[in-house]
Specification:
Layout (H helix, E strand, L loop, with lengths): L1 H22 L9 H7 L46 E2 L2 E2 L8 E2 L3 H7 L12 E8 L6 H10 L5 E4 L1 H6 L1 H9 L3 E4 L12 H19 L5 E2 L5 E2 L1 H9 L3 E2 L17 H9 L6 E6 L3 H16 L3 E2 L8
Parallel strand pairs: 4-5, 4-10, 4-11, 5-6, 7-9
Antiparallel strand pairs: 1-8, 2-3
Protein backbone atom coordinates (compact mmCIF):
# COMPACT_ATOMS: atom_id res chain seq x y z
CA UNK A 1 0.00 0.00 0.00
CA UNK A 2 2.81 2.37 0.87
CA UNK A 3 4.42 1.86 -2.57
CA UNK A 4 1.09 2.51 -4.30
CA UNK A 5 0.61 5.73 -2.33
CA UNK A 6 4.10 6.93 -3.25
CA UNK A 7 3.45 6.10 -6.92
CA UNK A 8 0.23 8.13 -7.00
CA UNK A 9 1.92 11.06 -5.24
CA UNK A 10 4.68 11.09 -7.84
CA UNK A 11 2.12 10.81 -10.65
CA UNK A 12 0.14 13.74 -9.27
CA UNK A 13 3.30 15.85 -8.98
CA UNK A 14 4.24 15.06 -12.58
CA UNK A 15 0.77 16.04 -13.80
CA UNK A 16 0.96 19.34 -11.94
CA UNK A 17 4.32 20.12 -13.52
CA UNK A 18 2.97 19.24 -16.95
CA UNK A 19 -0.07 21.47 -16.53
CA UNK A 20 2.12 24.33 -15.30
CA UNK A 21 4.32 23.94 -18.36
CA UNK A 22 1.32 24.03 -20.67
CA UNK A 23 0.15 27.32 -19.15
CA UNK A 24 3.54 28.96 -19.40
CA UNK A 25 4.36 29.83 -23.01
CA UNK A 26 7.23 32.15 -22.17
CA UNK A 27 10.42 31.61 -24.14
CA UNK A 28 13.21 30.06 -22.11
CA UNK A 29 16.33 31.82 -23.36
CA UNK A 30 18.52 29.67 -21.12
CA UNK A 31 17.95 26.45 -23.01
CA UNK A 32 21.05 24.81 -24.44
CA UNK A 33 21.94 25.53 -28.05
CA UNK A 34 20.22 22.58 -29.73
CA UNK A 35 17.47 22.50 -27.14
CA UNK A 36 16.73 26.18 -27.70
CA UNK A 37 16.45 25.86 -31.46
CA UNK A 38 14.63 22.56 -31.60
CA UNK A 39 12.19 23.54 -28.86
CA UNK A 40 11.29 26.74 -30.76
CA UNK A 41 7.90 26.67 -32.43
CA UNK A 42 6.64 29.06 -35.09
CA UNK A 43 3.20 29.36 -33.49
CA UNK A 44 4.73 30.78 -30.30
CA UNK A 45 6.64 33.55 -32.10
CA UNK A 46 5.24 36.91 -33.12
CA UNK A 47 5.88 37.60 -36.80
CA UNK A 48 3.10 40.18 -37.15
CA UNK A 49 5.59 43.07 -37.31
CA UNK A 50 8.66 42.40 -39.42
CA UNK A 51 9.81 46.02 -39.69
CA UNK A 52 8.82 48.47 -36.95
CA UNK A 53 10.64 51.53 -38.32
CA UNK A 54 9.91 53.68 -41.35
CA UNK A 55 9.65 51.80 -44.63
CA UNK A 56 11.03 52.90 -47.96
CA UNK A 57 7.56 52.76 -49.46
CA UNK A 58 4.13 51.43 -48.62
CA UNK A 59 2.39 51.62 -45.28
CA UNK A 60 4.62 52.47 -42.35
CA UNK A 61 4.95 49.71 -39.83
CA UNK A 62 4.23 50.20 -36.15
CA UNK A 63 6.20 53.00 -34.55
CA UNK A 64 6.35 51.44 -31.11
CA UNK A 65 6.80 47.96 -29.69
CA UNK A 66 4.70 45.98 -27.28
CA UNK A 67 5.53 45.84 -23.61
CA UNK A 68 7.79 42.94 -22.71
CA UNK A 69 8.71 41.14 -19.52
CA UNK A 70 12.17 42.68 -19.89
CA UNK A 71 11.69 46.45 -20.02
CA UNK A 72 14.11 48.29 -22.25
CA UNK A 73 16.47 50.46 -20.25
CA UNK A 74 18.39 53.47 -21.49
CA UNK A 75 21.83 52.16 -20.61
CA UNK A 76 23.47 48.77 -20.39
CA UNK A 77 24.38 47.13 -17.11
CA UNK A 78 27.95 48.44 -17.26
CA UNK A 79 26.90 51.90 -18.56
CA UNK A 80 29.30 51.73 -21.50
CA UNK A 81 26.66 51.50 -24.21
CA UNK A 82 23.26 53.09 -24.60
CA UNK A 83 20.39 50.63 -24.79
CA UNK A 84 17.92 53.18 -26.11
CA UNK A 85 15.57 51.42 -28.53
CA UNK A 86 16.27 52.38 -32.14
CA UNK A 87 14.10 51.29 -35.08
CA UNK A 88 15.85 51.22 -38.44
CA UNK A 89 14.02 53.40 -40.95
CA UNK A 90 14.53 54.74 -44.46
CA UNK A 91 13.06 57.71 -46.35
CA UNK A 92 13.13 57.26 -50.11
CA UNK A 93 14.10 59.89 -52.63
CA UNK A 94 12.91 60.29 -56.22
CA UNK A 95 14.81 59.42 -59.40
CA UNK A 96 16.70 56.44 -57.92
CA UNK A 97 18.71 58.57 -55.50
CA UNK A 98 20.17 57.02 -52.33
CA UNK A 99 17.51 57.08 -49.58
CA UNK A 100 18.04 58.84 -46.27
CA UNK A 101 18.47 56.75 -43.14
CA UNK A 102 17.51 58.08 -39.71
CA UNK A 103 19.83 60.92 -38.60
CA UNK A 104 22.92 59.52 -36.88
CA UNK A 105 22.05 55.89 -37.66
CA UNK A 106 24.60 55.34 -40.48
CA UNK A 107 27.38 56.71 -38.28
CA UNK A 108 26.38 54.42 -35.40
CA UNK A 109 26.28 51.41 -37.71
CA UNK A 110 29.70 52.25 -39.13
CA UNK A 111 31.14 52.53 -35.62
CA UNK A 112 30.15 48.92 -34.93
CA UNK A 113 30.78 47.49 -38.39
CA UNK A 114 27.16 47.29 -39.51
CA UNK A 115 26.00 47.83 -43.08
CA UNK A 116 22.84 48.96 -44.84
CA UNK A 117 24.17 50.14 -48.20
CA UNK A 118 26.84 49.19 -50.67
CA UNK A 119 29.07 51.67 -52.50
CA UNK A 120 26.73 54.47 -53.70
CA UNK A 121 29.11 55.17 -56.60
CA UNK A 122 28.64 51.64 -57.99
CA UNK A 123 25.57 50.48 -59.87
CA UNK A 124 25.16 47.34 -57.78
CA UNK A 125 22.27 46.01 -55.76
CA UNK A 126 22.15 43.23 -53.15
CA UNK A 127 19.30 40.80 -52.48
CA UNK A 128 18.46 39.75 -48.93
CA UNK A 129 15.48 37.66 -47.79
CA UNK A 130 14.05 37.31 -44.30
CA UNK A 131 12.87 33.77 -43.47
CA UNK A 132 11.04 33.85 -40.17
CA UNK A 133 8.84 30.99 -41.30
CA UNK A 134 8.08 29.14 -44.53
CA UNK A 135 5.04 30.01 -46.62
CA UNK A 136 5.69 27.79 -49.63
CA UNK A 137 7.60 30.20 -51.88
CA UNK A 138 11.27 29.76 -51.00
CA UNK A 139 11.78 26.91 -53.44
CA UNK A 140 10.62 29.12 -56.32
CA UNK A 141 12.86 31.94 -55.09
CA UNK A 142 15.85 29.60 -55.00
CA UNK A 143 15.03 28.35 -58.50
CA UNK A 144 14.91 31.91 -59.82
CA UNK A 145 18.21 32.86 -58.17
CA UNK A 146 19.86 29.74 -59.58
CA UNK A 147 18.53 30.34 -63.08
CA UNK A 148 19.79 33.93 -63.03
CA UNK A 149 23.17 33.11 -61.40
CA UNK A 150 22.46 35.39 -58.44
CA UNK A 151 23.62 34.94 -54.84
CA UNK A 152 21.55 36.25 -51.95
CA UNK A 153 21.43 36.22 -48.14
CA UNK A 154 18.65 34.34 -46.33
CA UNK A 155 18.15 35.31 -42.68
CA UNK A 156 16.60 32.37 -40.81
CA UNK A 157 15.13 31.81 -37.35
CA UNK A 158 15.18 28.80 -35.04
CA UNK A 159 11.82 27.38 -36.21
CA UNK A 160 12.93 27.76 -39.82
CA UNK A 161 16.08 25.74 -39.22
CA UNK A 162 14.08 23.19 -37.25
CA UNK A 163 11.35 22.67 -39.85
CA UNK A 164 13.00 23.37 -43.23
CA UNK A 165 16.49 21.96 -43.27
CA UNK A 166 15.98 20.81 -46.86
CA UNK A 167 15.60 24.42 -48.00
CA UNK A 168 18.50 25.58 -45.81
CA UNK A 169 20.58 22.79 -47.36
CA UNK A 170 19.76 24.19 -50.81
CA UNK A 171 20.78 27.68 -49.71
CA UNK A 172 24.13 26.36 -48.53
CA UNK A 173 24.78 24.08 -51.50
CA UNK A 174 23.83 26.74 -54.05
CA UNK A 175 26.26 29.28 -52.64
CA UNK A 176 24.00 31.64 -50.76
CA UNK A 177 24.76 33.14 -47.37
CA UNK A 178 22.59 31.92 -44.51
CA UNK A 179 22.30 34.70 -41.97
CA UNK A 180 21.17 34.81 -38.35
CA UNK A 181 17.70 36.17 -37.54
CA UNK A 182 17.87 34.78 -33.96
CA UNK A 183 16.08 31.76 -32.52
CA UNK A 184 12.83 33.38 -31.37
CA UNK A 185 12.72 36.70 -33.30
CA UNK A 186 12.71 39.00 -30.21
CA UNK A 187 13.45 42.70 -30.08
CA UNK A 188 17.13 42.53 -29.12
CA UNK A 189 17.24 45.61 -26.85
CA UNK A 190 14.63 43.96 -24.61
CA UNK A 191 16.99 41.10 -23.75
CA UNK A 192 19.70 40.85 -21.13
CA UNK A 193 23.26 40.28 -22.31
CA UNK A 194 23.22 36.51 -21.73
CA UNK A 195 19.79 36.11 -23.35
CA UNK A 196 20.87 38.13 -26.37
CA UNK A 197 23.98 36.01 -26.82
CA UNK A 198 21.99 32.78 -26.58
CA UNK A 199 19.44 33.97 -29.15
CA UNK A 200 22.28 34.52 -31.62
CA UNK A 201 24.87 31.90 -30.68
CA UNK A 202 22.29 29.20 -30.01
CA UNK A 203 21.06 29.41 -33.59
CA UNK A 204 24.63 29.50 -34.89
CA UNK A 205 25.61 26.40 -32.94
CA UNK A 206 22.65 24.45 -34.27
CA UNK A 207 23.41 25.62 -37.82
CA UNK A 208 27.05 24.60 -37.42
CA UNK A 209 25.99 21.20 -36.07
CA UNK A 210 24.06 20.56 -39.30
CA UNK A 211 26.14 22.30 -41.96
CA UNK A 212 29.66 22.61 -40.60
CA UNK A 213 29.92 26.37 -40.97
CA UNK A 214 29.20 29.43 -38.88
CA UNK A 215 26.93 32.36 -39.62
CA UNK A 216 28.53 35.79 -39.96
CA UNK A 217 25.65 38.13 -40.79
CA UNK A 218 22.88 39.13 -38.39
CA UNK A 219 19.62 40.89 -39.13
CA UNK A 220 18.05 42.19 -35.91
CA UNK A 221 14.39 41.17 -35.76
CA UNK A 222 11.99 44.01 -36.65
CA UNK A 223 15.03 46.20 -37.38
CA UNK A 224 15.12 47.04 -33.66
CA UNK A 225 18.53 47.63 -32.16
CA UNK A 226 20.57 49.77 -29.79
CA UNK A 227 24.20 50.74 -29.41
CA UNK A 228 24.47 47.96 -26.83
CA UNK A 229 23.12 45.25 -29.16
CA UNK A 230 25.40 46.42 -31.98
CA UNK A 231 28.41 46.27 -29.66
CA UNK A 232 27.59 42.84 -28.22
CA UNK A 233 26.86 41.21 -31.57
CA UNK A 234 29.94 42.75 -33.17
CA UNK A 235 32.02 41.28 -30.35
CA UNK A 236 30.42 37.91 -31.15
CA UNK A 237 31.83 38.23 -34.66
CA UNK A 238 28.69 39.35 -36.48
CA UNK A 239 28.07 42.02 -39.09
CA UNK A 240 24.64 43.60 -38.56
CA UNK A 241 22.89 43.93 -41.93
CA UNK A 242 20.07 46.45 -42.29
CA UNK A 243 18.69 47.70 -45.61
CA UNK A 244 18.14 50.68 -47.89
CA UNK A 245 14.84 49.41 -49.27
CA UNK A 246 11.90 47.56 -47.75
CA UNK A 247 8.15 47.56 -48.15
CA UNK A 248 5.20 45.99 -46.35
CA UNK A 249 5.50 42.55 -47.94
CA UNK A 250 5.31 40.21 -44.93
CA UNK A 251 1.54 39.91 -44.45
CA UNK A 252 0.15 36.46 -45.26
CA UNK A 253 -3.27 37.82 -46.22
CA UNK A 254 -2.18 40.74 -48.41
CA UNK A 255 -1.65 39.79 -52.05
CA UNK A 256 -1.30 42.66 -54.51
CA UNK A 257 0.20 40.78 -57.42
CA UNK A 258 3.60 40.36 -59.05
CA UNK A 259 3.21 43.63 -60.97
CA UNK A 260 2.92 45.55 -57.69
CA UNK A 261 6.02 43.87 -56.24
CA UNK A 262 8.02 44.49 -59.42
CA UNK A 263 6.99 48.14 -59.68
CA UNK A 264 7.64 49.01 -56.03
CA UNK A 265 11.13 47.50 -56.22
CA UNK A 266 11.94 48.97 -59.65
CA UNK A 267 11.12 52.55 -58.71
CA UNK A 268 13.26 52.26 -55.57
CA UNK A 269 16.42 50.87 -57.18
CA UNK A 270 19.52 52.90 -56.41
CA UNK A 271 23.29 52.44 -56.36
CA UNK A 272 24.39 50.14 -53.57
CA UNK A 273 20.83 49.16 -52.67
CA UNK A 274 20.45 46.45 -50.04
CA UNK A 275 16.96 45.14 -50.74
CA UNK A 276 14.98 43.52 -47.94
CA UNK A 277 12.35 41.15 -49.32
CA UNK A 278 10.28 38.70 -47.30
CA UNK A 279 10.20 35.20 -48.72
CA UNK A 280 6.68 34.59 -47.39
CA UNK A 281 5.36 36.86 -50.15
CA UNK A 282 3.85 35.19 -53.22
CA UNK A 283 4.12 38.55 -54.98
CA UNK A 284 7.89 38.68 -54.40
CA UNK A 285 8.40 35.09 -55.53
CA UNK A 286 6.47 35.65 -58.76
CA UNK A 287 8.11 39.00 -59.49
CA UNK A 288 11.70 38.06 -58.66
CA UNK A 289 12.73 36.98 -62.15
CA UNK A 290 11.45 40.28 -63.60
CA UNK A 291 13.11 42.23 -60.78
CA UNK A 292 16.50 40.68 -61.53
CA UNK A 293 16.22 40.96 -65.30
CA UNK A 294 14.79 44.47 -65.10
CA UNK A 295 17.59 45.67 -62.84
CA UNK A 296 20.18 44.26 -65.20
CA UNK A 297 18.51 45.91 -68.18
CA UNK A 298 18.87 49.22 -66.33
CA UNK A 299 22.59 48.61 -65.90
CA UNK A 300 22.61 47.28 -62.33
CA UNK A 301 24.79 44.36 -61.31
CA UNK A 302 23.47 41.96 -58.67
CA UNK A 303 26.28 41.96 -56.14
CA UNK A 304 27.43 39.58 -53.42
CA UNK A 305 26.98 40.82 -49.86
CA UNK A 306 30.50 39.62 -49.03
CA UNK A 307 31.89 42.34 -51.30
CA UNK A 308 30.45 45.25 -49.29
CA UNK A 309 33.18 47.08 -47.43
CA UNK A 310 36.03 45.31 -49.21
Amino acid sequence: MKKIAVFFCLLAAALLLLLAGCKDNKINHRLSDLGGVYAADEKDIDFSVEVSGKLSEGENAQSSIKNTDNPITETSSDNRYSNKLLMWGISRKPDHQTPDADPGAPELLKKYGGIYLGDPSEKKIYLTFDEGYENGYTGKILDTLRDNSVKAVFFITGPYLKEHQDLVQRMVEEGHEVGNHTIHHPSLPSLGDDELEEEVLGLDRAFYEKFGRHMKYLRPPKGEYSERTLAITRNLGYTNVFWSFAYDDWYRDRHRGADYAYNVVERNLHNGAVLLLHAVSKDNAEALDRIIKGAREKGYEIGNINDIGQ
